[in-house]
Amino acid sequence: MRIVKPLETMMLFAEGSVALVTGGSRGIGRAVALDLAREGAHVVVNYARSEADAEEVVALIGKEGGSATAVRADVTDEAEVRRMFQGVRADHGRLDVLVTSAGITLDRYLVAMSLAQFREPIDTNVTGTFLTCREALRIMQHQRRGAIVTVSSTSGLDGGFPGQTNYVASKGAIIAFTQALSNEAAPHGIRANVVAPGFVSTDMTRKVPAKIRKDYETRIRLGRMGRPEEIATIVSFLASDKASYMSGAVVVAHGGGLG
Question: CATH says 13-252 is which class?
């Protein structure tokens, strides 16, 4: 006879666990926020501009029986990031999971790229990761435990598309940063891992011209783009005790790569 466990024993996160997801109002971040909540965590949904989208995520989590709050903060602004984490500490007294999914692209061929255009993805993708990870560490070190999952891209490993030197540089830097962070965090009982998605169907990738998108899609060995939910389950696993012996890892999710 097959024994089915009660739902509460199947969740990845214990009652009272708190997770913060940057860029949690849209795309992969939205899917991650929903999945973490379904796995039992209270989720702090960070957004910079998309307040309505963030509140929609919070409402959906509540409708499904979960718990979440939306918090506005520009991850490139040191003061705003500090205030956000101070709020988490004041409201919850702890932080168990940080997922850094806030990110942008600004594609230009290098010969036509201004310094400001090069810096903008670096600032959001890399500086935002640095600022949020630093504040998370300051809470997690006192707990002697915690998990950080940064969201990079296979572009940081394979060079991406032409016109993406700024984006590729930022995503490669996130991988190197997280691996270095894992060395510093491990003695405090904190794990840091990276997920590197390939071509995933989000608002960001839908901006790619249809012909290029279709060509890329046919070259993926699984024959399709990924779904945000498929990346979210990987993030939840890495953030949970199921991945207790993983730190400094780069988990690639790209549909088998390009044929």
Answer: alpha beta
Domain ranges of the chain: 13-252
Q: Are 68 and 33 in contact (CB under 8 A)?
A: yes
Q: Is 167 a residue of the active site?
A: yes
Which helix (H) or strand (E) segment is 226 a member of?
Answer: none
In whole angstroms, give the CA distance from residue 237 to residue 68: 19
Each residue of 125-161: pLDDT tens digit? 999 999 999 999 999 999 999 999 999 999 999 998 8
Query: 180: pLDDT confidence band, cut at 50, 70 and 90?
Result: very high
Query: Can you give the length of the chain in residues?
Result: 259
Token pair belonging to 135: 């504040």
83: number of Cβ within 10 Å: 15
CA distance 180 to 196: 16
The residue from 109, 167, 216, 245 that is catalytic is: 167
Q: What is the pLDDT of residue 9?
A: 54
Q: Rounded to two decimals, what is the model's pTM?
A: 0.93
Residue position matching structure tokens 């490139």: 76
